[in-house]
Amino acid sequence: MSFWTRRKAIDGAAGGHEGHALKKTLSWPHLVALGVGAIVGTGIYTLTGVGAGLAGPGVILSFLIAGAVCACAALCYAELSTMIPASGSAYTYSYVAMGEPVAWVIGWSLILEYTLVCAAVAVGWSAHAQGLFKMIGTPDFLLAGPHAGGIINLPAVIISMAVAGLLALGTRESATVNMVLVVIKIAALAVFVALCLPAFDASHFTPFMPKGFAATPGPDGVKVGVMAAASLIFFAFYGFDAVSTAAEETKDPKRDLTIGIVGSMAACTAIYMIVAAVSIGASRTEVFSASEAPLVFILETLKHPKLAGLVALAAVIALPTVILAFMYGQSRIFFVMARDGLLPRALSRVNAKTGTPVLMTLLTGVLAAVLSGLLPLKEIAELANAGTLAAFIAVGASVIVLRLREPQRPRVFSTPAWPVVASGAILGCLYLFASLPAKTQHYFFYAQLIGLAIYFLYGVRRSVLAKGSSSAK
User: Fold this and answer.
1) For this UniProt entry, which segments traverse the membrane (predicted)?
2) Among 420, 471, 411, 55, which Cα is nearest to 225's?
3) Whether pLDDT at 190 is above 60
4) Paired strand residues for 217
5) Cβ-count burial 415-428 (b if 16+ within 10 Å, e if not)
6) pLDDT category, 145, cuts 50, 70, 90?
7) Helices (H) and strands (E) in the chain, counts
8) Residue 251: is its pLDDT beyond 60?
9) Which one, of 181, 233, 276, lies nearest residue 43 by Cα?
10) Average of pLDDT values for 223-246?
11) Are 123 and 158 in contact (CB under 8 A)?
């Protein structure tokens, strides 16, 4: 069949084979913790300040807009992940709904997203861990990349490889560690809120949108405004999609995936709105927006140096949960694409002892380590957003296509008002993409051209469906 018409059957989407199947070891508490661990991280600990610098107090509205778009996407993910309980997330859903070429583009976008998120969070972690590395005598040129006058961001490299090593040991083991670290992270945010409330000053919210609503170029050419901040802060919300990559390793995917995706998204939206509000109430945005660790900075200005140190320590301990969640997702995307033949099949081999794709996990760690060691946080986060927006658009489109093509198929979780919600996810993501810096948009399209070249040179002829897999429709 023509590669344009190749698509997977829903019932055969998992496509496991001997030596290429993942162990079922996870339940819904692991998935909720995976989602919260992925969502609550650099976005709230670090990007709150960057977003506030772009939008002023209106950054709260930026959080709300980005959260609303992600909520639409999360509901679409919940429907598709329970109907197609296979690893691969948006890549697999696109393969079923829209065919192989679209699936490749989305899979490549997810590779871009997850690798860059791991790198961005590693850079954010490094900003909080600088003090510890200086205490042991690490020279400054090993604490920053070339953009900041150093040679390499060594702490970011170390944490990237450490998390990859943990994931290679086993899924359940790393998920259990993740649950413990998530509790520490949420506790630190609770302490932050409790300390900021007594210093809350409503006058800090005036003027509310000093740089306007739409994303418009500022004096230095950088886009500012509520929507510019939303297109960046969007980075702070996604992560629930990493839950869907765990479908094949979930004991009861039809129940647990819905709880994991919707539950983690709802919990994190509430956490973000509260933390953003008390941050602005306790300190003016033009003050804390200049800090790479804004929450720690705010506590220091409120004369809580010891507790600020504890929050920074909690971030150092717990931010790796974000790297863990996205590196987990990245390795599974690589794994499924290799199992489908679009990448070398050898990369999908699962270790018999740990039940994990060790080679792909370590490769993901190396890629994240290189990027985090050399690039700045803001540019990494914006480019990661572009990949995620593409994936979310595909998920919304997949819901619409499958609703129209197979309306009678049973759906464990049905997206409420699906035409509105799925369309909202697509249109919202398109608007956020348009609000990204032009340079980021160009880099994204360049990356896609590279990806398409790989597909037409390798995957189009070697995919499982190209060889007549019985799962083709």
Assistant:
1) 31-54, 60-80, 101-127, 147-168, 180-200, 226-247, 259-282, 307-329, 358-377, 383-404, 416-437, 443-460
2) 55
3) yes
4) 223
5) beebeebbbbbbeb
6) confident
7) 20, 2
8) yes
9) 233
10) 78
11) no
Q: CA nearest 231: which of 433, 441, 45, 52?
A: 433
Q: In angstroms, rounded to a whole number, what is the distance separating the alpha carbons of residues 176 and 88?
A: 22
In the block, residue with structure tokens 């919990």: 267
Q: What is the pLDDT of residue 451?
A: 93
Classify burial at 136, counting beta carbons within 10 Å of its beta carbon; exposed 0-12, middle 13-18, buried 19 or more.
exposed
309-346 core/surface letters (b: 16 or more CB in 10 A; e: else): ebbbbbbbbbbbbbbbbbbbbbbbbbbbbbbbbbbebe
Which of 214-223, 329-338, 423-432 has the highest mean predicted lDDT (pLDDT)? 423-432
* DSSP for residue 143: B
Q: From the CB of residue 68, how many other CB atoms can be counted at a distance below 10 Å?
A: 16
Please, what are the domains in the chain?
3-15+25-467 (1.20.1740.10)
Q: What is the mean pLDDT of residues 332-349?
A: 83
Q: For residue 21, with 0-12 CB atoms within 10 Å meaning exposed, 13-18 middle and 19 or more buried, which class applies?
A: middle
DSSP label at residue 204: G
The neighbour count for residue 142, using CB atoms within 10 Å, is 15
CA 178 to chain centre: 16
Going by pLDDT thresholds of 50, 70 and 90, the confidence category of residue 437 is: confident
- Report the alpha-carbon distance of residue 369 to residue 391 in Å, rounded: 23
| Gap between the Cα atoms of 293 and 316, Å rounded | 11
Task: Write down the residue that tokens 């002829």 correspond to.
Answer: 461
**The pLDDT of residue 289 is above 80:** no
Q: Per-residue b/e over 175-201, b at no fewer than 16 CB within 10 Å?
A: bebbbebbeebbebbebbbebbeebee
